TrEMBL record:
Keywords: Kinase, Transferase. CDD domains: KdgK. Residues 1-295 form the Carbohydrate kinase PfkB domain. It comes from Natronorubrum texcoconense. The keyword Phosphoprotein does not apply. NCBIfam families: KDG_KDGal_kin_Halo. This is 2-keto-3-deoxygluconate kinase. InterPro entries: KDG_KDGal_kin_Halo, PfkB_Carbo_kinase, PfkB_dom, Ribo/fructo_kinase, Ribokinase-like.
């Protein structure tokens, strides 16, 4: 039995060397990366046992993804498919004004046909937390229903449900996302949402503290976390709002920072920490992740402990 079970697609990421264009690149780095598996790995690194659920093509690329996740110590429970393909994405990274450009190639992927009945629902109901994101229902109409069914099954089994809003404008419009994701809200206990997504999709204007309180009260969430990038995060729990500043960091790769934050927060809550302490660990984990290439937070709890204890200076000594 795992502490946390996550569900979603993990892609293969192909990246040319920093600053190089896709159209001229002659070599690529390859990493496996997906929000739900990233969260599972971060949670595991912070002390919570994790399982990743997905539907994956029975191909060399599909096996590559599953093998990489397993190498991080995560238990995998996948439905192997002979239909559909392995999703990929391409990442150009450069300084301003170009910035980072992501190109998805995830049409007709195996997971787009995944249905709740294909999975061992008892595995979700035996876990302490079930986690997924707003990326998953964006991938197909089938997955919109599957996500709702899995959240419902988790709730019926007494499992806490956690959800990262995680809006991706290259997958669907704000109107589509708002209509689908707000329908899922009644089945969610812990919501993580970026302040920018609240503005873009939910139409909220104003202070993030007010947003956290409004969401928590209106939708009866147990906990709401509003992330604000370099400005830190807001946590709402039991009608009390907590502020958490971001730790200073030298950014090598921002990809996966939010997933590292969320995985650490869930893990420390599972270990009995209060919301302010869990937010400290989440912010420290996110800061360390930004120094690490790739999608995954390859770090130890001791490193995070040191950053929390010394206010972000420990790793520079």
């Amino acid at each position: 039995m795992s502490d946390i079970v996550t569900f979603g697609e993990t892609m293969l990421r192909l990246s040319p060397p920093d600053g190089e264009r896709l159209e001229s690149a002659t070599e690529f780095e390859v990493h496996a990366g997906g929000a739900e598996s990233n969260v599972a790995i971060a949670a595991d690194r912070l002390g919570a046992t994790a399982t990743w659920l997905s539907k994956v093509p029975e191909t060399p690329l599909g096996r590559r993804v599953v093998g990489e996740i397993r190498r991080h110590g995560i238990e995998t429970d996948v439905v192997w498919s002979h239909r559909g393909r392995q999703g990929t994405y391409y990442l150009e990274q450069a300084g301003e004004p170009r910035g980072t450009n992501v190109i998805y190639d995830r049409e007709n992927t195996a997971i787009s046909t995944a249905e709740a009945r294909e999975f061992d629902i008892e595995r979700i109901q035996d876990a302490r937390v079930f986690f997924t994101t707003g990326i998953t229902p964006a991938l197909s109409s089938t997955l919109r229903e599957t996500t709702a069914n899995m959240l419902k099954a988790a709730r019926q089994g007494g499992t806490t449900t956690a959800f990262d809003f995680n809006y991706r404008n290259k997958l669907w419009s704000p109107d589509e996302a708002r209509e689908t994701l707000t329908r899922l809200f009644p089945g969610i206990d812990v919501l993580v949402i970026a302040a920018r997504d609240a503005r873009t999709v939910l139409g909220f204007e104003g202070d993030p503290r007010q947003l956290a309180h409004k969401l928590g009260s209106q939708y009866d969430f147990t906990t709401v976390i509003v992330t604000r990038g370099s400005e830190g995060a807001i946590g709402w729990h039991d009608s009390v709002v907590h502020d958490q500043e971001a730790y200073e960091t030298d950014t090598v790769s921002p990809i996966g920072t939010g997933d590292a934050f969320t995985g650490a927060f869930i893990a420390r809550r599972l270990h009995g920490e209060d919301v302010p302490t869990a937010l400290e660990y989440a912010a420290a984990t996110a800061a360390i992740k930004r120094t690490i290439p790739g999608d995954v937070a390859l770090l130890s709890k001791d490193e995070v402990d040191a950053v929390v204890k010394d206010g972000g200076t420990a790793l520079s000594r």
